[in-house]
Amino acid sequence: MPGGVDDQAAPSGGNTYDRRVCRDLPGAGWQVAEYAVAGAWPWPEPAARAELARVLGTFPDDGVVLLDGLVACAAPDVVVREAERLRLAVLVHLPLGDETGLAPERAAELDAGERRTLRAVPAVVATSRWAARRLVEHHGLAPERVHVATPGADPAALATGAGEGDRGPRLLCVASVTPRKAQHLLVEALAGVAGLPWSCVCVGGLVQDPAYVARVRELIAHHGLGDRIGLAGTRRADEMDAIYRDADLLVLPSCAETYGMAVTEALARAIPVLATAVGGVPEAVGQAPGGGVPGILVPPADPVALTGALRDWLREPGVRGRTREAALGRRTALAGWETTSRSLAEALELLRHEQRAGRAQPEPRRTA
Predict the structure, then answer these.
(1) What is the pLDDT of residues 82-137, one digit of tens each?
(2) Which of 86, 105, 137, 280, CA to CA, is 20 to 30 A from 200?
(3) What pTM was computed for the model?
(4) Distances (CA, A) of 8 to 19, 278, 306, 309
């Protein structure tokens, strides 16, 4: 089973997910051959499209192929043609048109290509229940063709946090520094609580949007927070373990998320979460077995709400205690990556059985 993986040189939740399922699917009964198609996805040059067509052309008729949506949905002309003879599944990490900062015409172009691709293939895999519903409603897909395989979380040591020292709680944001992750809103919100003790480190790629990174740095300097907010760039896995260990609160101010793997990575260490209630983030935050919520959810693109939530968490020991206790409970209820691989394997198994029996293309449903 081949799988398309996007640029491995650019760390992202999607890359982590792809690599992990490629590694773990053999344990669920699948042989995996991984193929990376170089290109400026989701805006591939002709050579990248040609390479995708060449790779897909090497597989025999009725072969089961799993494609990353960043690749598949950006090349509908190639994928729709191959869907006539191959059994294709497309894994959608983020609907392409949902990326923040796109010009309307570019977003519409990506959205139309994604619709063509997803309507042509017999199976679509989403990474949250929210994302599955969104794809069904937005692209008019048959619900039975859309499967869910949420990201897993590895067991991890409990965070010790920075405690109540002179610098106060240590806040952590784990996300590439891009407009969709909205670190500028976090800086503005932190400026609103500058009178309280805290420090914050933002870990994530600094190369995807240099102009936005420069904007965030300018905001930090403008508010005089250079000694309290750090942009750390990407870090190795062992370095991330140490960074999570010292964190007291994960803050994720994203404008769009299909799930939010950083949320469950934090909860695996019993770190409470302050995040925007977008997409699948509420699913990732979840509840502790006793019903407590291991964090605070605020509306997206609302710096006033984010500032207020930060102030409450920083000033009120009871709020910190309740969210920490709920995070401890949620930690024990998180599903592992083996659950992700099983869910994905079940979707592929249905596709394989459908291959043996023959299949009919689903009739398009309404388009939202």
Answers:
(1) 999 999 999 999 999 988 888 999 999 999 999 999 999 999 999 999 999 999 99
(2) 280
(3) 0.90
(4) 9, 26, 33, 35
DSSP code, position 206: S
pLDDT tens per residue across span 59-86 = 999 999 999 999 999 999 999 999 999 9
pLDDT class of 11 with cuts at 50, 70, 90: low
Closest CA relative to residue 254, chosen from 322, 207, 186, 196: 186
pLDDT digits (tens, 9 = 90+) for 266-305: 999 999 999 999 999 999 999 999 889 999 999 999 999 9
Question: How many other C-beta atoms are found inside a 10 Å radius of the C-beta of residue 152?
Answer: 22
Alpha-carbon span 24 to 279, nearest angstrom: 26
Cα separation, 129 vs 135, whole angstroms? 10
Q: Is residue 113 part of a domain?
A: yes
**Does residue 158 lie within any of the structural domains?**
no
The verdict on residue 273 lying in a domain is yes
DSSP 95: -
Peptide bond into 143 cis (omega under 30): no
Residues 121 and 239 occupy one common structural domain: no
- The three-class DSSP label of residue 76 is helix
CATH number of the domain encompassing residue 252: 3.40.50.2000
248 and 343 both lie in a single domain: no
Same structural domain, 327 and 351: no
Q: CA Rg, the chain, in Å?
A: 21
Residue 285: give the domain boundaries: 170-333
* 324 in the same domain as 212: yes
pLDDT band of 3, cuts 50, 70, 90: very low
Please state the domain count of the chain: 2
Q: Closest Cα partner for 135 from 56, 52, 73? A: 73
123 shares its domain with 210: no
Nearest CA among 317, 310, 320 for reference residue 192:
310
Mind listing the pLDDT tens digit for each residue in 359-368? 444 444 333 3
The answer to whether 177 touches 216, Cβ cutoff 8 Å, is yes
